[in-house]
Structures are given as structure tokens and as C-alpha cells.
Design goal:
The complex is a heterodimer.
Chain A (H helix, E strand, L loop, with lengths): L1 H41 L2 H15 L3 H11 L12 H27 L2 H9 L4 H31 L11 H11 L4 H30 L7
Chain B lengths: L1 H6 L2 H6 L1 H33 L4 H15 L3 H11 L12 H26 L3 H9 L4 H31 L11 H12 L2 H30 L4
The chains are: A mainly alpha, B mainly alpha.
Chain lengths: 221, 226
Amino acid sequence: MELLQQHLPFLLSGLWMTVRITLLGIAFGTALGAVVGVGRALGPKPVIWLLGAYIHLWRGTPFLCQIYIVYFVLPRTGVGWLQFEAFEAAVVALTIYSSSYIAEIVRAAIEAVPSGQREGALSVGMSPGQTLRYVVAPQAMRMVLPPLGGVYVIMVKVTAVLSVIGTSELVRQANLAIQRDPSNIMPIFLIVAVLYFLFCYPILRLTQWAERRYGGLHLEA
Amino acid sequence: MEWLLDVYNYRVVADYLPTFAFGVWRTVWISAVCLAASLILGTGVALMRRADSRLVRAPATVFVEALRGTPLLVQIYLVYYGLPELPLLGRRLDELEGGVLALSVHTSAYMAEIIRAGIGSVSRGQSEGAMSVGMTRWQTLRYVVLPQAFSNAVPPVLGQTAVLIKDSSLLSIIAVFETMSAGLRLMSDRYMPNEGFLTSAACYLAIYAVMLVVSNAVQRRLGGTG
């Protein structure tokens, strides 16, 4: 109990940072992923290839490696707006990382909408934009929900890795707390684990509920 | 080629080639060991989750949910710092043992779910048929249900293996030498982030490309749409 009183406020400040980074990453990553996914499903051939390369590039490398690249390599290009603070680098890396997974989900969902739906909409005189907006998107949306929840859980957990560039999120704060109180490594990390669990578990359950409700979407491994 | 040397000094990278080769070799065998261990442990957990008794099911469910609800990095720290405090182990686990243990246990939670789904996809008639020709429960499981479950589970297991390979990069944080550490070494020796990190990234991409080819070949071999 004393231990909780001593460390919890400090750890909670880390959790708050984790929540902020995750929410920003979810917002930007979902937007970027949706655009890339629509491009992958409906774009012309060259666009499909380019976006495919983009997705493979990010899915083929570990998140840890991506953070190092965003934080250490990009600033060396000398371009002004690529000079990131740790917080910005964290959000950028998380956005790009999640966009590659979300894009594949969006693409699979759009392709799962029967092509007769799109053809029908076009044949009654809807523009391609209207077809996407009023016919394809509403049907794809419900299929997207369960796997999207899965990606959000992964995003929460992956923010732990951001401690390596000194973002003051939960794991980083825990490491600092341990430097001050090295005899309590285990209890401190257990508290951290519980905090993450409290954050992730509701999303996990919501995802399972959505999957029962709307059915799963078949994704390639 | 002078401009390229400024951005990416391939001569220095060439000097470090043995370091990167060793890193990749380490990544591959750490992943292989963790894959084998997590499949064995995961199968056990999957069977527990399908047991009739609540007492058997509950701990397996807690195991899976707890591991899936917390970050791998925190699990690595817990195993690495925590296990030596258990009285059973007289000595401290070294980084490699602790890392492989944490990664195996973490992955086993995901493998358990995959195998559980694989078992679920084998139709009831199969096990009922096996029982009705006089097979024991163990024989039914061993010769009828599990072989079909595993073959159904192959595509998602390969996907999880790709995740496992990338996850193994986190072991560099507790000073296990692998692909990411090779890049970090170049970074700390010469302060060359481009050369260090981009080369590590290229190594991971190469491993990923091999995994894609393997998994496409397996998918074709199994003959379904996957």
C-alpha cells in the first residue's frame, strides 16, 4: 500500500502520456490507413503497387526499428519539419505503423462487399465518390470494427517500446521510479502491467463483442 | 558515388557485415526456439481452454488474457528481473535465457488461441466417428483431431511467426545480441544512425521476404484460399 502511494501518482502521469500518444496515433493512423486501404482496393494499378510496397515496408520491420529510424535517421535528412521531438516522433511512428495494418483491414472489407453492389450503384447513375460514400463504406464499416479493435489493442501495447527514445510514457516512468527505488523492481513492474491491462482489456472485450455481433472478417495472415 | 557515402556509408557497413550476419543468425534461431516452445505450450493451453472442468479452463483463460492484455516489453522485464528472485532458481538467468523464456510464453498465448480455433474448425463428426470405432479420448485427439487442427492452423501460425520475428527485436533492450543490436552497435561505435538502423531494417525486410515466399508456398500446397 505504501508502495502504491509512493509510486502510483508518478506512474499515472506516464499512463496519461501513453493514453495521449495512443489516442493521437489511433486518430491519425485510422485516417491514413483508411486512405491507403481505399487506394489499395479501388486505385489504378501503379497506385496499388506503390501502396503495397508502403505496406510491406512497414509490416516487414519491427516497430522498435521504425522508432529508431523516425527519431534518429529522419532528422539527418536536414529537412526542417522532420526534426522531431520525442513526443512527435512517437506519434509519427505509431501513425505510420498502425496505418499499414489498418489499410489491409480496410482493403479486405471493401473487397468483401459484393461487386454487384458497386456496379448497381454506378449503373443507377451514382458517381464513384457517391458509390463509396453511400453504398460501399456503410457495408464495409461493420466488417472493419472487430479487427480494428484488435489493432488498437496492439497499438496500446506497442507504445511501451517508445520508452527507448525517452518519451515519458508508462514504461519510461517505471524505469525512472526503479532508479530511485531499486529494491522494488518487481512490484513496480507488476503495477505497470496491471495499468496496461486495465487499459487494454476493455478494448479486447469490446472487440470480442463486436466480432460476435458483426462476424469476423477473413484476413490474410 | 560520393553523395551516397554522405547518406549511407556502405564501406563502414561492409566492415560491420559479420556483425549483422551474426545478428540475423541470432534472430533466426531465437525465433525458431521460441516458435517450437510456444507451439508446445500453446497446444497445452488450448486443450486446457477446451476442457470440461471450469477448474482447468479458468487458469488457462487467465493466462491467455493476462498475456494478451499487457505489453511484451513489460513481460520481458518481469521475467528478466523477477525470475531470479524465485527461490527455485539458484542463479540469475542470463539475458538470452530470460529473453527466450519471455518471448516463448508471450507467443504461446497467441498460439493457444490459433490452435483452439484450429481444433474448433474440425467438425464434431470426426471425433464422434473416432470414438464410435472404439478409439480412446487420447487416441481421438492424437490421431484424428490434432492433425487436422494443426493443418488448419498453419496459415495463422505462419503469420504469428512473422510477428514473433519482429518481436524478438525487443530483446535488444535487455542486451541480447540480435539484428537490432547489430544496428545499435554501429550507432554507438561510430554514431552512424543511417547506416546502423537502415541496415537492420534491411535485414528484417529480407527475413520478412523469405517468410512471405514460404507462406505463399505453404498456402498453395495446402490448396485452399487460406
